[in-house]
Structures are given as C-alpha cells and as structure tokens.
Amino acid sequence: MLDSARLDHHRLLRTGLPEAVFGENKTVIQLAEILPALLRRHAPVIATRIDSMKAEQVCAVVKELTYHQTARLLTGNTQHIPRGSGRGTIIIVTAGTSDLPVAEEARLCLEYFGHETTTIYDAGVAGLHRILAHSELLQRASVLIVAAGMEGALPSVVAGMTPAPVIAVPTSVGYGAGAGGFAALLGMLNSCAPGLAVVNIDNGFGAACMAAAINRKELPCPAQ
Amino acid sequence: MLDSARLDHHRLLRTGLPEAVFGENKTVIQLAEILPALLRRHAPVIATRIDSMKAEQVCAVVKELTYHQTARLLTGNTQHIPRGSGRGTIIIVTAGTSDLPVAEEARLCLEYFGHETTTIYDAGVAGLHRILAHSELLQRASVLIVAAGMEGALPSVVAGMTPAPVIAVPTSVGYGAGAGGFAALLGMLNSCAPGLAVVNIDNGFGAACMAAAINRKELPCPAQ
Amino acid sequence: MLDSARLDHHRLLRTGLPEAVFGENKTVIQLAEILPALLRRHAPVIATRIDSMKAEQVCAVVKELTYHQTARLLTGNTQHIPRGSGRGTIIIVTAGTSDLPVAEEARLCLEYFGHETTTIYDAGVAGLHRILAHSELLQRASVLIVAAGMEGALPSVVAGMTPAPVIAVPTSVGYGAGAGGFAALLGMLNSCAPGLAVVNIDNGFGAACMAAAINRKELPCPAQ
Amino acid sequence: MLDSARLDHHRLLRTGLPEAVFGENKTVIQLAEILPALLRRHAPVIATRIDSMKAEQVCAVVKELTYHQTARLLTGNTQHIPRGSGRGTIIIVTAGTSDLPVAEEARLCLEYFGHETTTIYDAGVAGLHRILAHSELLQRASVLIVAAGMEGALPSVVAGMTPAPVIAVPTSVGYGAGAGGFAALLGMLNSCAPGLAVVNIDNGFGAACMAAAINRKELPCPAQ
Amino acid sequence: MLDSARLDHHRLLRTGLPEAVFGENKTVIQLAEILPALLRRHAPVIATRIDSMKAEQVCAVVKELTYHQTARLLTGNTQHIPRGSGRGTIIIVTAGTSDLPVAEEARLCLEYFGHETTTIYDAGVAGLHRILAHSELLQRASVLIVAAGMEGALPSVVAGMTPAPVIAVPTSVGYGAGAGGFAALLGMLNSCAPGLAVVNIDNGFGAACMAAAINRKELPCPAQ
Amino acid sequence: MLDSARLDHHRLLRTGLPEAVFGENKTVIQLAEILPALLRRHAPVIATRIDSMKAEQVCAVVKELTYHQTARLLTGNTQHIPRGSGRGTIIIVTAGTSDLPVAEEARLCLEYFGHETTTIYDAGVAGLHRILAHSELLQRASVLIVAAGMEGALPSVVAGMTPAPVIAVPTSVGYGAGAGGFAALLGMLNSCAPGLAVVNIDNGFGAACMAAAINRKELPCPAQ
Amino acid sequence: MLDSARLDHHRLLRTGLPEAVFGENKTVIQLAEILPALLRRHAPVIATRIDSMKAEQVCAVVKELTYHQTARLLTGNTQHIPRGSGRGTIIIVTAGTSDLPVAEEARLCLEYFGHETTTIYDAGVAGLHRILAHSELLQRASVLIVAAGMEGALPSVVAGMTPAPVIAVPTSVGYGAGAGGFAALLGMLNSCAPGLAVVNIDNGFGAACMAAAINRKELPCPAQ
Amino acid sequence: MLDSARLDHHRLLRTGLPEAVFGENKTVIQLAEILPALLRRHAPVIATRIDSMKAEQVCAVVKELTYHQTARLLTGNTQHIPRGSGRGTIIIVTAGTSDLPVAEEARLCLEYFGHETTTIYDAGVAGLHRILAHSELLQRASVLIVAAGMEGALPSVVAGMTPAPVIAVPTSVGYGAGAGGFAALLGMLNSCAPGLAVVNIDNGFGAACMAAAINRKELPCPAQ
C-alpha cells in the first residue's frame, strides 16, 4: 500500500523544488520504505522533523543517510546537490540560542536546494547593538529568513533596515501567555514593517522553500 | 440608591491615589450625580473613557468640568492638583499616531496626580532611528510608559536601552489576527527585556497609576 | 504636535518602498495634515483603509487626491510613479467576488510602486476548472498574490502549480467558526505546498510590499 | 457496578447501527468486562481508540478479539457481520500518509457495518493531478469520506467534483498555528463547496456512522 | 469586470445542485448584475444572506425576485423548480424560536432544489416532552436537519431516536461564553450519537445542500 | 516554612465545610507534613487529586490514610464523619463510564461531609430511555450533581425534569474540538434549563461543596 | 406558525419555576403574540433582555406590561405573584455600579418568583472594607448571588465569609484582555472558595432561577 | 558557534541588571559552556528554569554552581552579590503552597540583585483573615510581588491595601477552564485596583527584574 508510486515525480518540474519528506507523523517503517525510493531518484534527499531516536533506527537500515541533530534532518545524495541555484545570498537571522533548530533546518534545506547562506545568530531586540552591528551585511542579502520566539519583534526591526524581502519564522520558544509561538506569530503578522511575510511556527523548511522560490536564478520574465 | 456614600473616601490614604471614575459603563445620569460629589471633596477629579457625546451632556449640567477629547477624559478641580508628587520625570513613549489616545490618557492622569511627564511620540520599531535618536533622554527617566499596538515591540526595545522600570501598554490598534491589541499584549508579556511589566489593553489610566506608585516621593522605607 | 517632521524621509532608501499612510485609526484632521506634506515630497502618495465617508471629507480639502472605492485607497502624485521597478509580472488571484477589495488594494499599491500586474479573479477551489484554465498564465508570474477567504485553500493549489513564490492573503470573508478570516489564515499557515508565505488577514498593502520587495529589479547580489 | 446491563440493547433498532465501545477513557478492566458481554450478543463487536499496549492486555484475556494497529480498533464476531447493508460504494479519500489511521478506522468500521468501500489514499491538493486522476471513480461513489489535516482543503475540492454527499474528517496532523487539526476543522466548516458536512477531528468512527446512515439500503420512504 | 461569464455553468452537472449566490459580502450593484444573469438561465435562482434593506433595493431593479424575510432569501424562476428530486421527506427540527431564520433558509432552499420537507419547530431539550411527542414522525424521515443554539443538545437527542442521518446546524443564539454559536458547534462536534455530521454556524444553506445530496433520487450505484 | 500553622482552623465555622487539601501541585513531602496535622484536628480529612503513585508514597508514611483509586482521594479520620448533615438526598448522575472519577470524587466528599447520596450512572442523552427510566427518582432529590463530558447535554435534560437545583460538572472527556471538557463547559453555561449552575471542568470536589452548602440542615432563616 | 401552543404549560409543575420569555432574539411581533398568551394564564409574566426601544413598541400594544429599564425586563400579572416561596432571604451583592443591570434582573425575577431579597451593591475587592462592613448580614443569607465583572474576585471573597451557597454571575464589564466578561467567568470557575457555582456571563435570570430552586420552601425530602 | 562572545557584556550598564540565562530551551552542553564564561566575569550568576535532572548534569561539570530545587535556579559567584542595591524592602506574597516555585524564583533572584525581601506565603482570598493579619507589614513595602494562580484575586486585594506598586505574577496553578494560569492572568490584567502591573505566567524572574528596577537606590532624578 505504501509503495513509492505515491512520490510526486513531477514536483520539481512544477514547483522548482525537490520533494521532501515530512517525518513527524511517519513511522520508522514508512520512512525506511520511502527514503530509499527517493535516494534511487538521483536527487538530494531531505526528511524533516526526525527525532534522534527515529533517526538512529532509520539510519541503521538506510546507510546512505546522514542525521543532523540540531536541525532534526535526515539527508542523503549529497553528490546530487545542485550548485548556484540562487541569484544572491540568503541571510538567516535568529533572536536567541533557542531559535537555532528552526534556523538550522532552514539553512540545511537551502544548502540542499543549492542556495548560498550566511547566518547572524543571537541578535534579539532587547540588546539592539547586536543587530545594529550587522546593518551593512543586511544590505547585501537577496532574501532574509528571520526566526524569533518570545515577542517575535526581530523581523520587524530587520525589515526596517533592508530592502530585501523578509521571511519571518515564529518559533515555539516562550511560556505562559503566548506559549507555543503564538505571541511571536501574532506579532509578526501584525508587523508594520514593509516587505515581510510569515510562515507557520517552527516551519524552517517552509521558510527555506519560500526563500528558494524568491532567490531562484532563472526567474521567469515576460521578455523571455 | 446611587448616593455619594459609595465613594471610597479613604482610598487616597490607603493607596496614595485619588479615586477616578471609570466612565465607560456609566450613564449620563450616574455621572452627573457622582462627579459633583467628587468635586465637593476638594481634590482633583478625573473621569475616564467618556465619549464626546456623553461628555457634552455631562458638561452641560456640571459646568466645572473640562473635556479632553483625545484622552477622552473629564477633569475638574484643577486648583487642587498636588505639586511635586514625584521623584523624577515619567517619560511616555508611543509607537504611532494611533496610540495617542492611550498615551494622552496616561499623561493627563499623571498631571492630575502631580507628576512631571515628557513625551516621545511616534517612534515605532520599523524605523529604529526614531527611538535611537532619544537614547540620551531615555536615561533620564524615573519611570517609562510605552504604548504600542500592532506587533507591540517598542517596550522591549526601550527596556533594553534604560535602567528605569518600563510599564508596557498594548493598544487596540491593528486588524486581522491580533486585532484588539492581543498581538501587542502577548508580545509584551513575552518580552525578554528586563524591568518591564504590562497593564491591560488601552489601559492608559492603569499605566498612570502604576507609574505614580513607582515615582512617589515618600517611598516607605523600613529604616525611616 | 502632528507636524510633518515625523514622516520617515529615509524609508525609501532603507527599504526601497515609499511610505504609505495607514488610514484606519487616523482622523480626517490628521489625514488632512499628513497627506499634503507627503504630496510636497514629489513621490507617489498612498493612504490605505479609508472609508468613503472619510475620503469625501479629506478630498474636499486636499484636491490633488483620488479615491478608489473598492480598494479603499486615497492616492496622489500619479505623475511621480516610477516605471519598470519590477523584473517580471505580479499575478493577483482571488477565490471569489468578496476578496476583491483586498486584491484591488494590492493591485493599486503595486501600480504606485511601479510594478506590472495581471489579475485572475474568482477562481475558488470548489470549481477547479476555473483555476486550471489559467495554468499556463500562472507559469509566467514572477510573484503571485493569492487572496482567499472561507477555507482559504486557493494559495495551496496555486503554489502547487507554479515555481514562483506565492504570497497568501487571508480575507475576512466567511461566518460562524472561522469568521474574520481565521479559518483562511490558519489554512494558509498550514499549507503543505512549497514556496508560500502569509501576510495578515485583509492585508493587501502588506502583500503588495512583499511582492515588490521580491520583484525589485536591482536585487542586491554579492557579486555586484 | 459496571455490569453489562448498561449496554444499550435497543440501539440497533433505534438507530440502525450496532453499539461500539469508545475505548479511550476505559481501563483494561472495564474493557475486559464490557467486550465479552457484547460478544455474547451475536453481533459484530468494535472498540475504538485502543492503543497497542491496552490492546495486548485485553486480547490476552479476551481471545476472540482481533487488533488492527493502524486503525487502533479491536474487533470481534466477524462471522456476524451483515452483508450488503449499503445501496452503493463508500469512497474514502485521504490527503496524506498521516491521515491513514483515521481513514482506516472509518474503513474497518464500515466493513463491520456491512458496507462496501474503496480507498483513494495520498491525494493532497498541493499536487492536484493526484485527485484529478480519480475524477471518474469519484462519480461512482454513493457517499464519500474525505480525511485531511494541515490546511484541510481536499474535501472542498472533492465536493466540487461529485454530486454525492461528502463527509469531511479533519485530522490532527500539522503543527504550530492550527495544530491539533483546528486549521483543517475550521477550513472544512468554511468550505463553500456544496454537499459537505463535518465530523469532529480524527473522528473516523463518527464519519463511518454518518456514511452508513446515508448509505443504508432500506431508506424509509413516504410511500411505505 | 463583473460579467456573468464567471457564473459556474457546469456546477449542476458536476454537483447536482444549482449555483446559489452568497449575498452577505456582495453590493447591491453586484447582485443587480449577477441575479438577472442567473434568471436568464431558466433554473431556480436563490440568493442567501440578504438583509431587508439590500433586498428592497435589489427588488426595485430586478422585478422577478421575491424576498423571504425570515429566511433572508431572494428567490426567482419559481416556475423552473424541479419536482420530486428526493427519495423521501427531509424533516427540519429547531430547538427554539430564535433558530427559525436558519431553519427557514434550509427549508426554502430545499423547496427550490425540489425536495419535500416537514418541520418540527421549538422542541428544545429543556422540555423533553416536546421532541418525544414527535418520535413516530422522526422515524419517517429520509434525512433530518436539526438547528439549535445555546447548548446545542437537540441533534444528539434526535440522532439517538432515528436511523436517518442527522445534519446538525449550530445557530448563533446565546450570549456570554459560547456566544456566536460556539457552544452549540462544539457540542454538536462532540456528540456521541451515531449518524450525525455538522455544518458551520447558521449555515442553513449548507445544511440544505448536504440534505439534498443525501436525498437525491438517482443515487449512483456501481451496479447501474 | 511549611508548618501546620497555615491550616485554616476557622474555615469550618466560617463556611460550614472542613478544609480539604488540593493535592495536584503538592509534593509527597508537603502532603506528608500537612495531612498528619489535619488528622490531629479530630475532623474528617480529605486530599483530592492524588495519583496512585503519590498515594502509595504518602500512605507508606501516614498509615491512617485510605486511598480511593477511581476518585483519586486520600481520606482519614472516618470516625469523625458527621451524621445527618443534610436535609435530603443528593443524587449524582453521569452520562458515561468516563465520567466516573469525577462523580466518585463528589460522592466520597459528600459522604465525608455527612450527606446522603444516590447515584445514576451511565445515562447519556444519545439513549434517552436511560434517564427517562429514572424520572421518578429524580423528583426525590434535594440537590443533583450531573457530570457529563462530550456535548455536555445531560444537565440540561435533567434540570428540565426536576424542581431541585442542578450542579453541572463538565468532564474532560472527548477529543478534537472541545477537548479538555470545553465543549461540555460551554454547553452547560449556555443551558436554557432553569435551576442550573456550573463548576469548573472535572471539579467533583467543588460540586460536592456546593451541594453540601445547598443541602445543609440548619439553613440560616431570617426568623431565627 | 407562532401560536401559543408552543408555550410550555407544564414547566411550573416539572421545574417549580414559571416560564419566562428570552427576549433578545425575538421580534416585537413575536413578543406581542407570546406575552398576551402568557398573561391569560394567570401567572406572573416576565420577559428578559428587552431593550428600551423594543419595550416601548411592545408596551404600546400590550398595555398590561411594565418595563424596568435597568433590568431590561417586561413584567405583568403582578397580582399573581406568589408569596413566601422561599425559606430565607436571598442576598444579591455586586462589585460595582456597572454590574447593576445584571443584579437588578436577578432581583426582579426573584421578586416575581415570590422570594425575599436584600442587596449589597458596590462592594468590589479593591476596597475590602466595603464588603467586610457587611459580614454580619452575609451570615443571614439563605443563598447569595454575587455579580462582578473585571477580575471577578468578589464571589471568592464572599464564599469565604459565609456558609450559604454562592451563585457567581460574571458580568460583561471590562475591556481589553478579558473583555466580554471572560476574565470574570474564568476567575469564578477557578475559585478555590467552597460552596460556589457559576452561571453564564450576564445571566441574572439564570442566577435567579438557581437561587429560587435552592431556596424553595417545600424541598422534597425522602422522609416526606 | 556558541562562544561566550555572544554574552551581553554591557547589559549591566544599560539596564542596571546582570544577565541571567534562561535555561528552559538550553541543552546541558550549551549551559556548561555559557555558565563558566559568566562565572569568569566576577558577577553573580543566575540560570533560571533548570529542572533537577539538567541541574545535576551541569553541576557535575561546573562545580561552582549551587542548585535551588523549589526555585529551579542555578546560582554562582555568591561572593560578588552586591549589597544594599535597594531603597526599601520588597515583599513577596503568595496565595497558596503551589505558588511557591514562582515566588522563590523571584526571591532568590532579588537576593542576587542585592535587594532585601520579606515573604508572606499562603494568604489566598478565600480566607481573608490571612492577608488582613499582615496589613501593617504591607504598608512598609517599597514594592510588592504578588503571585497567585486559580482566580488570581490576591494582587487586587493587596493593591487596595497599600500605596506601593504591586507586580502581579499569575501562576500556572489550576485546571479546567483557565488552566495554565490564564484565568489568573486575565483576572490580574482586569484588576480595578490602582498601582498594579502584570508579568507573564510563572515569570518570577521577570517580576524580580521589574521590582529591582523600581527599588534601585540611585533613581535618576532631574535635579542630578
């Protein structure tokens, strides 16, 4: 029933992005069946939201996979990663140490999509000098991914400092009212800074997909 | 039934703050009965949340009152305002033009409590230079009241720039998700900046009371 | 107090987008003071969220402004609109007639930012043939803005049909559970289609800013 | 106290459906007492929401039961399953692999109610070709059960393709905003496709009951 | 822009139900353009959620329409109503007087779809004798639509008394906690009665569509 | 710090009810200190919300206590239970097996308060005959406690059958939308049956206190 | 359709309380039909939630009715009010002036049910001396109804001062977070004071029904 | 990547408070790297939200740290605690035993900031005599921190008894509706007592920071 036929072979053509496997609700047995099928397709393989226990069991069976603990990713077929997919550099910014898993998920996915990234980690707004120190670097971004939990104010501040589009990722850091990333999500949706859109809480993969779609080299132009 | 006996005569002694009338749910008839009773007590009189229609009707009957439209306040007995109640200056900061009613409610109430105030209006985080331009002034505050709607990030930024306590007031500016000031409220409660506490959405009066309590000259000390 | 000094003169340099006035919480008096100041700056002028009653009063005083009823926009300085700001065409898609105000707000703002737009209106998912009929056109988009209320499924479907980035705008169409656009917002945040990010409910202006930031011609590149 | 007297003997007569045991809040001891009582009644036995640990303990005592892991069902008295209860075929559709437990719960319950089913699994809207490939089959359904998590858009799309009634089942797949199936539930309730009603999140059993009630052969007619 | 081309001509073929116009977000101008186009198509015409003020203005222009005040419907082309579309009688039950608008919307829509209906109004569960008095009649239903606000318990009680499928419609009757129909919606989704599914709050039209889909005479069967 | 001085010695005089210990957030060490102090006061002792693991550890140290597993109560000083505190019998009704823990918590607490109780368990509204069978018994109640999860409709039905006051207890039974008892709580708050008030979800102890306060023999009368 | 047959004639026998009309969703026409029917039944008549505009129109037609503005009640048949229905006095307590409409609704309904009441108005917890001054009077209550908005703390304080049962009524006073009475409702449900149950927000009528049910003279006893 | 460079060295100067480490989302490895770096800076070290398992592992590596179990704090560099930072005594009040962890977190942090504290534990409003017994002591506070769960009424009562500013901390004590501290949070935000502001649920550290900012000796004055 779970045969590889269900893999979406034409997705790359249609959307410009390879298929990735959302691992959260999949069993080890399902992953051990789907991932080898993807590996056989000579394209980079990514499975997201894999906890370390599941990863260990899958890797024991599918030897070609590598596990990235902070990002909770399984990857494979590194040799098939495309090069130079992007027009510029994608900068990934985080507010605090706790936003690292989401930022790393985005960074590694972009690497597998063939895009160049730079990171500015731990630049939350309660100490403004930390992000102001990077204002020149921010000007050079083609796209920015800004991950923040708690009050989620960093994307607003960054979007006010640069003309590049900002993808805001709320993270499920925090507690009490606004726990689970809701304060950050609502804050980002209500930002009055220009050039900012939001993906779901902790959705580092989604942010990477949007960044890749924006940064793609061969942007279709009416003139072509 | 609605006689003046219910006014809380000892509140000033107990809490150091005069009684103010919360006008939102009161009828013109109730206000026209309660406010003259307060005026007879030789103390500054404040009624909050009075829309202009109600204000006009009450002022027609109780001539000694003044209406402040932006702040939606009725005040009276100006001659009884105490002087020099505070140890320092209270600075009131807003993110945008739409936060003015709440900020003005706080500012006028503090004036009636006998405290000195300074204002920094329209300094939202999407244009950081606006608040950074005031960083020296912020150092001189005894207490700060920071009102912001939308993503509500300004109090976090201000609290990271000054050692004085910050009272954050979410305002019901915004729309969609987080409408009614909820994004701002949640953001402020989740702030990771030190020395910050929150009052209810649009509660300029409550912010003024807290600021006055903090800034009171004769702070009771165990040694004294 | 409300002098034009507070206008953010460097915003265009910093963010690549002209300042627009969020009209919802502003009084006619405030608008009649701010908008002429903007008109004097020789740049396109936009004020969003202006209901027709307010618009009439403002236009009576500030003759150079034009009102767009469906989009609820006041605009001016048409002669200063830049030309050819974008690398490609931005396609705006709506699910139903009720999403028109939001889509038109986005379309007119983009026109004032100097970007080219095409529209596909009334292509909701309950009649799939309506969006499938445009599949070739969708391939030619540089960026897409997809506005939908109710179940908010259209952006997912569109993002699965094209490699260009999709900006999803939930609209406050609907009733009962999910009223106010919440069903659409949550659906879009949970989309499993790649290359999709979300702005706040009814935020046509925000969608236009993000689309313009993505579509800007002079994308900063590390090599330059 | 927990004697079998409380079993609802007339339920089949009243509602046309056999009683099933909702296992989630029941202890092993309660199940080991109730299920044998049902087995003695010469009718198909179903207990839903039984995790594998509980199942193992119950089956060790009540040997006549079979456990279905994906569907989390205990069943018994297979020999008493009615045949040909339905007027047509019930088609069960899912958006993704993660919706399988809910779909299988519905499918097995329908089998025990004596209805014929066909399944179309893994046909989410981000790859429209997957559901379009089955459009002819969809025409032949008597009733459809469509299970989807995330944005929950599949039932709208299916209901727009077929005249048969669609029972939409939101599943608790997803994360962040809309986690727990709320995005899918709200989306389905706000669907503008005709001929669609919703059951609770993950309620595969409820969907099966509704489908069986609709598909029953001996529909009471005014002529009888 | 708003030409009749966007009307979904094949909807009747695809879904077995004529297109109806959701009037809530449409202007008088839009309705006065769309409805005559539908009238020209020689099929029954229904526009839902039309308040009496809008109705008056539209009827002044489009003379062929009739307004139904309680149901808030505009209808036309009565002469084209199909006859005998259904296999049996659809019974519509309400808990209280306040549920009438929703029930009448459902009843009139079903009449326009060509189905026979019977009504049991004002049979809330706080006086059980009211619904028990109709228990025989309930047995004769082909489908039931049960509308209730407040605690929303009536559909559970009815579904326990009859083998026919029950479509539960929460109504926005009530106040305080659970206002807007949420208590009723949640209650109906949590019903443990068999053979019950739910449509959105106040969605009488949606309930009618589902009831019509279930009650259609020519149910497609694999054998045919 | 945790000395017994903090026990509220005058509570019985003030409120007519002995102090009970809310065990949920207390450690074994805290319980092992507080409960012996209460035992020394020659009054019945009750500690609520004690899971079996905690109970075992506390009972190992404090030998005079008895654990009631379904009700999750620790009790002691049975010999000091008052007799005949009540004017009549308190009837406890539940909708399903899963409501037993809450009902038993209420029943045992009432026993320790010296009130007589009768129980009607498993009488949910999807099979009305179950509660109708007890209609005569319901007339004899002095007070009723009705516990129900899921749609929470049973208290409405019961309150419509009897003149005695009904205390409705929502239980955290159910799943999906309305999980955690919220559907039941909202339903009960919105009940239109007369003579019904609600306590918090799963608050069997609170229901017992209210029932005891209502049923107290020596009700203060103006004549005394 | 709206004939008087639907009035619940046996409600008084079953529940001990006369039927009252919930006026909020009823039209003037419906009220003008239902209320005369009730007046003819020689029992006290009450219609709740009638705004002054509706009241004026109904009273113009049905001359025997009296309107109570604060309580928003229409009453009639005063001559049929029973006397001495209660065993003791019901005390109604409010926190502030804004809670008066709810308290007065409860007080007048109880008067029509034949119960004696005493009121303690304006005794909120921010000035504890106000409620402490009445501690002796509180001891004499048979039942208490305590209405409070804002933080809703008054019922907890009162329930800690008296052995009589307390019916807590949250009122929709307040703003921002907790607006609509939700802060008060949640606070009351979470009260740790004994002998307290809650009715819905602003439900003065429901509180009166519960109080009357508790205070009824002829409480059914098993011995009788 | 996680080098100590990211520690915010100038925070003490800017905000008057030393940096503390929020331990909840940090791994043992991250803590074992950050804390020694802080210890080398000759200032008091605090890490909050450290569960006992994590604490044990960190202490095994970093010997200079002490673990405080109730407060869930790791502290170090006790010899560098400043003395006499405050102008007066900060009083910490709790409603119940379950609020102790939050109160102790606040108390220990204040000790490390160099402020004097006094505690009043277990003074909930259901037994008013407990807080009234301390009314004289309350007058002597410079600032108050009041922690309460459940209905969260204690801060209102305390703020009505003293002129000092009150910092209200909702705690995640309670269950059912309002679980997780939401009832307490909403209640505190809606308090009508003067001189009260709120921090996030369970945020003892935030309360301590605000109290320290208010109580700082060298308050900046305009005269200086």
Question: How would you explain this protein's 3D organization?
Answer:
With 224 residues, chain A is an alpha/beta fold. Chain A has two domains: 11-80; 89-215, Rossmann fold (3-Layer(aba) Sandwich), CATH 3.40.50. Helices cover 34% and strands 17% of the residues of chain A. Chain A has nine helices and nine strands. Chain A has a five-stranded parallel sheet with strand order 6-5-7-8-9. A four-stranded mixed sheet of chain A has the order 1-2-4-3, sandwiched between helices. In chain A, α2 crosses α3 (52-61) and α4 packs parallel to α9 (204-215). Chain A is globular, with a radius of gyration of 18 Å. At the A-C interface, α1, β9 and α9 of A face α1, β9 and α9 of C.
Task: For the structure shown, list the relevant keywords.
224 residues, disordered C terminus, Rossmann fold, disordered N terminus, homooctamer, 5-stranded parallel sheet, alpha/beta, 34% helix
